[in-house]
Specification:
The protein is mostly helical. It contains 6 helices and no strands.
Length: 171
């Protein structure tokens, strides 16, 4: 996939996360998109989500078709004692690549910051900076369906390669 196509795919994913999930933000697992490996990753991700819910994180989302998770703002608090306890209990079922490394978080932070600055420059004054490599957009302050937002999103398509433009789809 060339860089432009990747950026478009990630932009579409970002837009979907912003509109469908209520706010953007991901705890994405990095999974291969090829054949049985993808199926195994998805199966493991489904079991992990079930385990997290069984261990008290009732709002933990199901994975997407690629085995990645989108955790929206207002969703489970990843820093809560209950979340951390459930993570430990479900460690054996954790899909590959769920834990992000600090270098990836720093890269995502830098890329999302460029994107946020572009959105503000294009008329979305309340657009927030990312935190810990994640972008959370407060829908109570920002109308993600407005023409102004959509125009800014389109104008910022290439800003920061939207989430880093990484090969593994994390970002």
């Amino acid at each position: 996939m060339d860089q432009m196509t990747k950026a478009s795919v990630l932009l579409a994913a970002a837009a979907l996360a912003l509109t469908a999930a209520g706010c953007g933000g991901s705890g994405a697992s990095k999974s291969s998109s090829s054949g049985s490996n993808a199926n195994a990753t998805l199966e493991k991700a489904v079991k992990y989500a079930q385990c997290m819910r069984e261990n008290g994180v009732t709002g933990f989302p199901d994975p997407d078709k690629n085995g990645r998770f989108m955790i929206a703002a207002g969703g489970p608090d990843r820093n809560s004692p209950q979340f951390k306890k459930a993570q430990q209990a479900c460690k054996s079922q954790e899909p590959p690549g769920l834990q992000e490394n600090p270098a990836e978080i720093a890269k995502d932070q830098k890329e999302w910051l460029k994107f946020a600055q572009c959105m503000r420059k294009n008329g979305i004054q309340d657009f927030p900076d990312p935190k810990d490599g994640r972008l959370l957009v407060p829908r109570d302050r920002i109308n993600t369906n407005s023409p102004q937002f959509k125009n800014a999103l389109n104008a910022c398509r290439d800003a920061g390669h939207v989430g880093g433009g990484s090969e593994n789809g994390n970002g």
